[in-house]
Each structure stands twice: as C-alpha cells, then as structure tokens.
C-alpha cells in the first residue's frame, strides 16, 4: 500500500513535471496561432491597424489633458465624460463617428432640458408627490424610447441617440440637484463631451480617414467585378476556349475567380450599414454631401439577384458532375422513352435506316438539354445585367455624374460578359470639388461557336456594352 | 412702390395665415401616420411592447431605489452606475442581456485590477514619470483592445466587454486616487453595477422572457415552412392542378405564399446574431444549456441555398412570360434552325411526309425546353433538401433528440414537395426537463403526369419523406 501511494505520488509528480515541461511548447504554439490570426486581420485591411493607433492616441490625449489639468472638482467626475465619449464614439469610419457624436450631443442636450423641466415640475408637488411624478416620467419616457428603437428608420440612424436620451433623462431628472446646480453641471459636462467628440471627429477626418461612402462605392464596384470575373472565367471553363490572345483570354491556373461571386451573396447587411453611415459624411473625394447613397443599395439588390442566378448556373454545371446516379438513370430513362416515341412517330411516316438516326438523336437530346438550360440561365443573367445598368444610369443621373453613356445593344444572343467595372473618375486629376463621372464597361464576346462543341449556337461576333 | 410693399406684406401674412390654418390638419395627418406605424411595429411582434414596459419598470425601480435611499456620497456619483447598467445592458432577448451583463461585469473587474496595478507602478516613478507611464499604458491597451475588436470571434461575443475594459482601465488608471481609495470606490461601483445587472437579468428571465435560442429555432423552422409553401403552391400554379381533395390541394386565391421564400434569402445576419446570443442562455423550454446552436447556422446556409434555387425556378417561370421579345425571337430562330438540321438529316435517309412531322417537332422542341429546365432546377432543389435533411439529422444527433427517423426514398423522380415542418415536441406535455424530439415531415407527391400537359413525365405516385 505504501508502495502504491509512493507510485501514485511519483506518477502525480511525473504528470506535473510533464505538464510543466510541455507548457513552454504549448504557449509557443498558442502565441504563434494568435500572431498568425493577428497578421491576417491586419493584412485583410491595414486601415484597422491605423484605426487602433488613432483610438489609442485620442484616448491618451484626452485622458492626460484631464489628468494634468483637472477641471473644477477633480478628474473623477468630469474628465470621465470626455473619456467615455472618446471610447464610445470613436468608430472605424468617419460616418459612424459623426453619427455617434451627433446622436450623443443632441440627445444629451434634449434629455437634459427635459429632465430639468420634469424635475422642476416634480419639486412643486412636495416630498411625497415628487418621487411618484419622477418615477412616472422615467417609466413613460424609458418605455416609449425603448419602443421607438424598434422602428427600422430610428434603429438605423438614431439608435445610439435614443439610448443616450433615456440615460441622460434618468440621470438628470432624479439627480436631486436644483435647476441652477444642474445647469452648471450640464454646462461642464457638455463642454467635456464636446471636447471628446471634437477630438474624435478631427482625428477621424484628418488622420488617414476611412469614408463609409467610399467603402460602399468600392464594395458595390468590387461586387460587380466579381460577377464579371466569374462570367469571364466561366467562358473558359464551360466552353473550353483558351489562347485567344487578342481578347486577353488566357488559360488561368487559379480557379478562385469562379468562387469569388459567392462573397457577393452576403454583403447586404454590410451595404446597409455603410449607406447609413455614409449619410452622415461631408463631401469627400469624388462624392458630394448627400450623394445618393440609397441608390447603391438598389444596385446592390440587383447585383445579388444576378449573383443568385450565377449560383444557379454554377450549381447546374456542377450537378452535371455530381448529380446522384439514380437521378441520372431516371433522366436517361425518360430521355430514352422520348427518343423511342419520336422514333415511333417517324417510323409511322418513314422507312429510313433507324441505325443511322440513333447517334444523332442521342447527341441532340443530351447536348440540347445542357445548352438550353445554360442558355436559359444566361438569358436571366443578361436581363439582370440590363437592370443593373439601368439602376447605375439612374445613379449617375441622381449624382449628376458627367460623361455617362448608355449603349446597350441586345441584337445578338449574348453568352458571356467579359469585364465589368464601376469607377468614379475625378475630373482632371485634381480633387477640387469638380464634377465626376462614372464609367462602366461591360464587354461581351461570344465564345460559343460551332467549333467549340456547341453546334447549335448562332454565329455571334464580339460586342461592347458601355453604360 | 408703397402699394407693392403693402401687397407683399399682405401676401406674406396670407401665407402665414394659410400655414397656421393648415397646421392642425398637417399635425393630424402626421400623428395618424405615426400611430399607424406604431401599431404595425407592435403588431409585428407584440413582445416589443412588453419589452419596452419591462425596461421602463427596471429603470424606474433602480432609479427610485437610489433616489429614495442615496448610498454613501449621494446619488450623483454612485446610483448613476446602476442607471447606466440598466439602460445599456437590458436587451430584447435573455441571451443578449446576459451577454452584455457578463461582459460588463468581468471587463470592469479585470480592467479595474489592471488599472490599480498600472497606477501603483506609475506612482513609483515620481511626478514627472507618472503621466508618461500612464499615457503609455493607456495608449498600448486602447490600441490593442480596439484592434482585437476586429477579430470575428471577439466581435461576435465580447465586443461590449472590450469596450468596457478600455473605458474602465482608462478611468481607473488616470483617476489620480490612491489604491485604497480606488478599492473602496471599486467595491461601491461594482455593487451598484451588480444590482443593476441583476435586476435586468431577473426581469429579463422571469417576466415574459424572450429566448434568442427559441427564436432561432422558430426562424429556421418557419424558413423551411416557407420553402415548403412555395413548392406546394408552385405545383398548383405551374402544373395547373386543382381540386384533388384527398391531398388537401385546393385552388388558393391568395398567391402570397409564392413570394414567402424571398424573406428567407435575407435572414443570415439575423440567424448569426441569434446564435451568438443563444450561446449565453441557460436551458429553457425544450432546449438545454449548450444546445448545438451552431448547427442551426449550417441548416440556415442550406435553406438559403435551396431558396436561391427556388428563386432561379421562379425567375425562369416568370421569364417565360417576361423575356424580351427579341430574345424570344432569337431562341425561336435557333430552334427553327435546329429543326431544319434534323429535318435535313432525315431527308437524307428517308422520304417520309414532311408536313406530318412538323407539328410534332414544334411540340418536342418547345415543350422539352421548358420541362427539362424546370426538371433540372427541381433536381437541384431535391439535392438541397437531401442536404438539409442530413444536417437536421446531424442536429438531432448533437442535441440528443429522441425519436428521430430518417427515411428518404429517392426511387422516383420527384417533382413537388408538399409540406415541410420542423418542430420540437416536448416529451409527454410536461416541461420537466425531459428529452425532446424533432419531427420533420416532407411529403412529396407528383402532379406531373401525362394528363397534365407534360407527356414526357414518368408515372410517379405519391411518396413520403420522413426525416
């Protein structure tokens, strides 16, 4: 028994020893993993690193300002509001920072004034009535404000303001201070909030600014680019055409462009957030104040619709490889039955050589099946692209873009879109507030010709769609 | 000139008079509009009204508690934290409230302790070194914390905690108080925060609770239901079959069920938010603590994939009506060319009566085009439904649901899914923590038969898929 105990102790200590021994290794692995993730997050968008440094700088600035020169009754009660403001208000984009600053400022003022009024009213009712009246108003305003946050419009733009309104109103109305004392406090608090907010806004706008509007524009443009990449790559993949050097079509080893469109499917929430923030932003780059950001959302909806169709196309082509065998057999059986019917139909009217027809029918049935489905989905895609072009034209009209052409010729059955891009081009290189124009080029070129394995495709030549 | 001025004044006063006269009418219209919107927001989800009342109640409670019995040095500095906590922490669902409370509590403690440490360290370095060390730490921690908020995992679950961490650390480290004073303050603050948080959590859980987990489950189930409604309705619309009373198929006047699936396309963000909040929730209803909520997200992805395919199907069917005429002509021309080729092929081998074949060829070409495309998309849909059924089976396995059957017979070419539902059924009616089971019924029945205008469809009988 003693030996057992000794052995157990020994085993126990060996376990501890092993654990301690492997600990540095484990820590090293974990640290490497975190470093790898950190590098990825920073690499995905280097502006994140700059933003973090900006927040650190703003907070240090405002903290030390109040630490070195404490105002009135010491840092604790007042400088706190400046720190609060910086931490809560400083967001990634200028629009988001402005949204929160404005909401915080106006809500504080409004709720403060209302709070003073309610407190004055309550104080008229004596010691017994006061808490009842205060409680009543806090309840009513908190409940209605909370409910108002469920309105989509308020949720999108004024959510933070409503929160600060409830907070400030509750604090002021039940603070127990007299009105003159409150006004003095309010003055000090508002000035510290304003200082904090101003520091955030200034750093946000003048130090490597991140504009939500510009991001929205780029997001929509890059989504369009992804669809174009797919359609370009799809041509090479599906029709197996390579080496047309004039059109820049070369075989690509990297197939990732065929999956790029998938990210387009999930950008709705991101687009809406950016559009809401962009609404607050002053003019910047090629965009004026009150640029028609909402129109980007409409374009985004149409782009996603097109991406769904591309997804259907992609799924169809993959399903040709992956369809469960039982389905394939069923389809083939049905085809075979159809073939027999047609045959029998002909047999009644002709006495030709049946064996000669058979390969032709086989070809006709299986090859038209694939081509017609693909053509049908491509037709839907073309329709979507027409709609996208219309909505971009509408945008250029609303935003007073110059130099927008709209030519869309649909005389030929289109198969492939070769390139799509939307870019704002500032006038003459200078950023001097001049007008700007948008160019979207959608080049379409047929890769579907009898030589490329599709004997039923019409002979279409290359065509350009400039919109 | 005098007359002009008088006239202008008169016109001006008339304008003001008109404005004042129409003002009550305008106010009335606006008020009615707001009342209408309010009614809609409340009707869409009556739990919103209850939530607003709950917040009002919690805030009034905590406010008056500190107003009537001010602790230590008066309400202003301490009760404030309880009000803060209630306003910021009380969210719509139990999970969201727990998430914020926990984040706030732990972040405050951690940052407070770290702040005291840093301040002690800084005080060792004398008056000149102190602000430098403090500033350095505030900068480093604010920047790294802000950067950490870009990590998706942290963003989803601990975003608020990181915010509170920066806030508290900055406040404590630069407060200028000595450590013993800080510990006293921290004790008071933490207790007020705990009180505020506890009130929120208790009211949130025990007064008409809104469970994010239950909502997620219902959302996924209702999405599945919407797909089923479409497929059921689509049968009636596309194959024009009515009046089969045995199967419950009756002509529906309301076509809204054909559009219901569209809302499914945009529930991704909502599902992710709910899953994140559900992670914090204790066991409730039929769900245990640590229910595999992540699996719902996987099911959600597959449901959306299926909805995209339904969208493609819907778009294809609509495009049959709406395709621009020029495309139709092109397609018809291509078809005609193909027809001629086939004809010529037969002419070479036979000398039958051409006029007799023509109608048959027309029929074959235009009718197989539609049917094959629809069949191909339906095949993809069936494949998606198989995937959904697999992932639901995986969920039932992970969640230890009882009584789950999986039967999926795909012997026959499926055309229509008749009904789909996922519902958790608690064991024996009592909510006593017993196991629960999920039943998903997907009944499929063919409406595609030779009598219904599709001569190439195989004869399929009704079949059930229970998974």
Question: What would you note in describing this structure?
Answer:
The structure is a homodimer of 467-residue chains. Chain A is mainly α and 467 residues long. Chain A has two domains: 16-206, no CATH class; 212-241 and 255-348 and 365-400. In chain A, 70% of the residues lie in helices and 5% in strands. Chain A contains 13 helices and three strands. A three-stranded antiparallel β-sheet of chain A has the order 1-2-3. The longest helix of chain A is centred in the C-terminal third of the chain and has 45 residues, at 354-398. The first copy, chain A, is extended, with a radius of gyration of 33 Å. Residues 72-76, 241-252, 321-325, 345-366 and 404-467 of chain A have low confidence and may be disordered. The interface between A and B is large, with 105 and 105 residues.
Largest interface: A-B, 105 and 105 residues
Number of domains of chain A: 2
Q: Average pLDDT of chain A, to the nearest integer? A: 72
With helices defined by DSSP (H or I, 4 residues minimum), what is the helix count of chain A?
13
How much of the polypeptide of chain A forms β-strand, as a percent range?
Answer: under 5%
The outline of chain A comes out as: extended
Q: Structural class of the helix and strand makeup of chain A? A: mainly alpha
Helicity level of chain A:
55-70%
* N→C terminal distance of chain A: 90 Å
Q: Strand order within the widest sheet of chain A?
A: 1-2-3
- Rg for CA atoms of chain A: 33 Å
